[in-house]
Write a structure and sequence with these properties.
heterodimer, A: 298 residues, mainly alpha, MetI-like fold, 2 domains, flat, B: 235 residues, alpha/beta, six-stranded mixed beta sheet, three-stranded antiparallel beta sheet, 9 strands, globular, binds adenosine-5'-diphosphate, binds magnesium ion
Chain lengths: 298, 235
């Protein structure tokens, strides 16, 4: 015990003046003070946090701009940040972006709505009823192992190269995350809760509505979040098929015209959509699950 | 159907799990408003008996007669985490009348301040009191308690004993309390049963008056008797 203390706190350095030979050595010179007034104001620490997180991206942007300005990288390969901002300005001035965004969003939302609703319905059916589980679970568990991108050629032969094929790709991508999480959520509800509901006179239907669904909701929302991400990914893939409108069309055109600045701008639009979806889903979870203990995610 | 002087009638009841009879030729009658405590080693079938009485499980043979209105408080609170406390108390019902009933019941168990709370914010004792309020709003003729205080700390348990005693005095349901705490059984019950080998091995009335004091002579005599019946060495 005392030898360990001597290694970590040599008295000669840590407490030279106090006590001396045989005197008391204070081994806890820095007790933690957790009183509220000793902590920095939350506003200020949050600002510091933001600055900290912004530092690395800002440094990269600066380095990128400088590398382009001094001609270290060819503009055709990697245009500078300023070029990309200019490309955005051009897309907006010509009205391309305004025309493309609603089209792409429309595809993603329609596919998500259809695929998500189907997955939700199948998940509830399989989770709540034994017949549903028997009918759907094994086939869906097998189908989900197919990467949806592998279906694209098949869907083109089945549904052509117009909107329907694009929609079907997005639907195929969104059904499974929704199904799996809904099913798992419903099945994961503690049977003891359902037993209690039956003791207190709830019918099967009431137990499903008042006990099972609210308890499974977190898992269902996780499914929705995954499905939204999958919808975006599927959108990007689907828009490579004979794109005549949407962000995919902008990318395709830029590709043919060798405009890497516009290609990067288009990729950034997809990225922004991804961030927007994520924020929206967090907001939804926050509003729909007020009973869940909050985790610090800020 | 039930004779007037019995709240519970069991005759020749058996319950078999995987070829092993947990209850075998089991008989028990309980009067209305009687408070019965059941003791027994772990695995002797106390929970199995309570599940038969509650209707959650069916006997493999024999007669099981119970009142139509029954409630259970389980060892765990079993509250729906996504529903507020008052909604848990009147689970499945909505509207101002349901809410008023829930509030009245919660006030009785001393939780008026937590009507709108979420279950996950409650302490163990508070959650168990919500479960008690939920059982009470059913106005049961038979209240089944399966080790409801086992997970609580000693102080909270004493408060819960008082509360259950008061509520029983006020509403007079027949009560079956399963417990492994001999003192708890003697403090609360009119009658203590010891279960072993699928049957009742001891059935004693507790006829000394309330409030019962643990240090009293009658109390310690009965405690000795019950402990030795349970196979615990007593010195
Ligand atoms: N659903 C079940 N399936 C199989 N065995 C069971 C089941 N329920 C209880 N048992 C068995 O019955 C016996 C009595 O269990 P239980 O009534 O829970 O005991 P206690 O509540 O007295 O501790 C135990 O041996 C247990 O393993
Ligand atoms: Mg038990």
């Amino acid at each position: 015990m005392s030898s360990i203390i001597r290694i970590e706190f040599p008295p000669a350095q840590q407490a030279p003046a106090r006590g001396g030979e045989g005197g008391l050595i204070d081994l806890s010179p820095q007790r933690h003070d957790l009183s509220p007034q000793r902590h920095p104001a939350p506003g200020r620490s949050r600002l510091n946090g933001w600055l900290l997180r912004a530092a690395a991206p800002a440094a990269i942007l600066l380095a990128w701009q400088l590398a382009s300005s001094f001609g270290f990288v060819a503009v055709e390969v990697l245009p500078s940040p300023a070029d990309i901002v200019a490309a955005f300005a051009e897309l907006i001035r010509l009205g391309d972006l305004q025309a493309a965004l609603p089209v792409s969003l429309g595809r993603a939302v329609a596919g998500l709505a259809i695929g998500g609703t189907t997955g939700l319905a199948l998940g509830l059916f399989a989770g709540l009823w034994r017949i549903g589980e028997g009918l759907f679970d094994a086939p869906l568990q097998m189908l989900r192992t197919i990467p949806f991108i592998a279906l694209v050629p098949l869907f083109i032969t089945w549904f052509g190269i117009d909107e329907l094929a694009k929609l079907m790709v997005i639907i195929a991508a969104t059904i499974f995350p929704m199904y799996l999480n809904t099913y798992a959520g419903v099945r994961g509800v503690d049977p003891k809760l359902i037993e209690a509901a039956s003791i207190f006179g709830l019918s099967h239907r009431q137990a499903a509505w008042h006990v099972i669904l609210p308890t499974a909701l977190p898992s269902i929302l996780v499914g929705l979040r995954y499905a939204s991400g999958a919808a975006l990914l599927a959108l990007v893939v689907a828009e490579q098929i004979n794109a005549r409108s949407g962000i995919g069309y902008i990318l395709n055109n830029a590709n043919m015209n060798q405009r890497s600045d516009i290609i990067i701008a288009g990729i950034l639009v997809y990225a922004a959509l991804g961030i927007a979806i994520d924020l929206l889903m967090r907001l939804l979870e926050h509003l729909a699950l007020p009973w869940r203990p909050k985790l610090a995610l800020a | 159907m039930l004779s007037h002087d019995h709240a519970v009638e069991l005759h020749g009841v058996s319950r078999v799990f995987a070829g092993r009879a947990v209850l075998d030729g089991f008989a028990l009658t309980i009067r209305p408003a009687e408070f019965v405590a059941i003791l027994g080693a772990s695995g002797t079938g106390k929970t199995t008996l309570l599940r038969l009485l509650s209707g959650l499980d069916r006997a493999d043979g024999g007669t099981v007669r119970v009142p139509r209105r029954r409630s259970v408080v389980f060892q765990e609170p079993r509250l729906v985490p996504a529903k507020r406390v008052w909604q848990n108390v009147v689970l499945g019902r909505r509207g101002a009348a349901a809410r008023a009933r829930a509030e009245a019941a919660l006030t009785e168990v001393g939780l008026a301040a937590h009507v709108n709370a979420w279950p996950k914010t409650l302490s163990g004792g508070e959650a168990q009191r919500v479960a008690l309020a939920r059982a009470l709003v059913q106005e049961p003729d038979l209240l089944l308690l399966d080790e409801p205080f086992a997970a609580l700390d000693a102080l909270t348990r004493i408060r819960m004993h008082e509360l259950v005693g008061q509520l029983w005095q006020r509403y007079r349901p027949a009560v079956v309390l399963v417990t492994h705490d001999v003192d708890e059984a003697i403090l609360l019950a009119d009658r203590v049963l010891v279960l072993s080998g699928g049957r009742i091995s001891l059935d004693v009335p507790v006829d000394f008056p309330q409030p019962r004091i643990r240090s009293g002579r009658d109390f310690s005599d009965l405690r000795m008797r019950l402990l030795s019946e349970l196979g615990v060495a007593v010195h």
